[in-house]
Predict the 3D structure of the following.
Amino acid sequence: MPHSATLRVHSKVKAAAIFKDNLQNFLFVLPAFAIFCIFYVYPFLNMIFLSFHEWRGIGPMHFTGLRNYQELLTDSLWWDSMWHAGYITLIALIFQNALAFALALACDREIRMKRFYRVVFFIPPVLSEVVVGLIWNWILNPEMQNGRHIGLLNHLLYISGFPQLVHNWLGDPQTALTTIAIVNSWKGFGWGFIILLAGLQTIDRQLYESAMIDGANSWKTFTKVVIPMMLPVILVVVILTILGCMQVFVLILSMVNEGLVNHTDVPVLRILSAMSATNRFGYACAEAVNFGAILVCISFITKKLSDRAKQV
Amino acid sequence: MKANRYVLWGMTKSTLIHVFLMSVALTCLFPLFWMIRCAFMTNETVFIDQGLIPHDLNFGNFALAWTKGNFAVYFFNSVIYTVCVVAGIVLIASLAAFSFSRLKFPGKNIIFYMFVAAMMIPLPGSFVALFVMMNKLHLVNTRFGYILCMINVGLSMSILLLKTFFDRMPHDLEDAARIDGCSKIGIWWNVALPLARPAIAVIVIFNSLNVWNEYILAFLLLGDSKLMPLQRGLMVFQGANSTDYPVLMAGLTMAAIPIIVVYLLMQKHIVKGLSSGAVVG
C-alpha cells in the first residue's frame, strides 16, 4: 500500500515536471507561432470568409454566398488580367529561361572573368521592382524636346538610323505588355542563371568525358547528358518563374503611371483596385482566393510533372 | 595542320562566348550607369547633353532629393525597418527552429508543418484581409505594425533554413553545455546561435534585400509620409514631380546603391544560399 502511494506521488511529480518541460519547450516556439497565427492564419481564414460577403470596408456586412465568385466568372477584366499575367509569364519562361540557361552553359567552364559575369548577372534581381520600373520608365520615355527624343531607347533608335522604329513603347496598348514582359525578363534572368549554373556544376565531369569517348558530339552530349541530369533543377526554375511572374505588379505600377490600366492589368492589380478604388472588400477577397487556387494548381501540376520526370 | 585548325576553332569559340556574355553584362549594367549619369545633370542639360559622361557634374540633385524630396526621412525609415525586421526574424526564427530541432513538446510536428505549408502555398492577395485586420487593431500607419507584418513575411523560410541547419549540427557541444548546467535558453544563446552563423548570414542577407525592396505592404499600411520607406517614397515623389528626372534619378541611386554594395560584399553567401536552397530542395 505505501509503496503504491509513493509511486502515485512520484508519477504526479513526474507528470508535473514533464508538463513544465513541454511548456518551456513550447515557449520557444510561441513568438513565432503567435505572429504566424495573427498575421498569416487569421487573415487567410478571414479572406475566405470575406469572399462570401459584400462589404465596403466599414458598416454592415452582407452574406451573399457564392455571388462574388459567380460575378468573377463573367468578369472579363479579371480574366483579361489573368491572360496578361500569363503572357508575361510565358515570355519569361521562354526567353528569360533560355537566356539564363545559355548563360549558365557558357559560364560552366574554365573561362576568364567568370566571377565578374556571375556578379553582374545577379545585379538586376537584387534591385527593387520600383527602382527597375522607374529606370526603364525613364529610358523608354516617349516625349520629344527641342526636336530630340528624351528617352534613351528612342534616341538610340533615331541616331542609329532606325527612325521608323521610334515608338511610344509603354503608351501604345499594342506594345505596352510586351515591353513590360521584356523588362521583367531583364530583371529576372539572373535568378535562373545562378540556380542553373549551380545545377550544372553538380554534374560529374566524367560523364562528359565518357560521352565524348563514346563519340557523342556537343549537341548529343547536351540532349542526352545535360538535359536529363538538369531536369529537376530546370523544373524548380520553371515553378519559381511561374509563381514569381504571375504575381508581378509593382514593376507594372512603376512603369505605367495609371495610364493604360486595362491593357496592362494583372490579377494582383485587379485585387488592389477592387479593394482601394471601389471599396469592394468581399469581391477583392474572392479574386484573391481564386487567384491563389489557380497558382496552387499550377505549382501542383508542375510538381507532379517533375516527380514523373525524376522517375524516368 | 589539323591541330592548328582545332586551336583556331577553340579560340573563336571562346571569343564568341565572351562576346555573348559581355553583351548581356553590358545590358545589365548600362541602365544603372544611365541612372547615375542622369543623377548628375540638371533639368536643362539632361535634355540637351548627349555625351556618355555629362560635361559638368552637378551634385546638387542629391542634396535636393535628400531635403526637398524628403529622401532623408525615407532613407532613415528604410534603415529602421530593415534593422528591426531582420533582428526580429533572426531572434524569433532561431528560437523556434531550435525548439523544433532539439526540444520536444506535443503538437510540435503539426506546428512545424504549418510553417512549411505556409511557405508552399502562394497567397497573392492576402494583403486585403491583412489590411482589414491591421485596421481593426489600429496598427495602420504605425512603424510597429509594419515591422510585425514584415517579420511574418520572412519567418517561415528562415525557420525552415535554421531548422535544417540545426538538424545537421552535432549534439556534442550542447551536451557538454548541459552537463555544465547550462539552461535551454542558455544553450540557444551560447551554443546554437554562434554555431549557426553561416545560416544566419544567409537569412540576414535575404531578408534585408526583401525588406529594403518591399513595396505593397508599405503602400497599404503607411500613408503618412513621415513613416514611409524608400520604395514608397520614390513612387510618391515620382507621382508628384513626374518631370524632375535628375532628382528622381538621384533618389533612385540612393535607393539602389546600398543594396548593390551589400550584395557585392555578401555575394558569396547569396549564391550559396540560392543554389543550396534550390538544388537540394
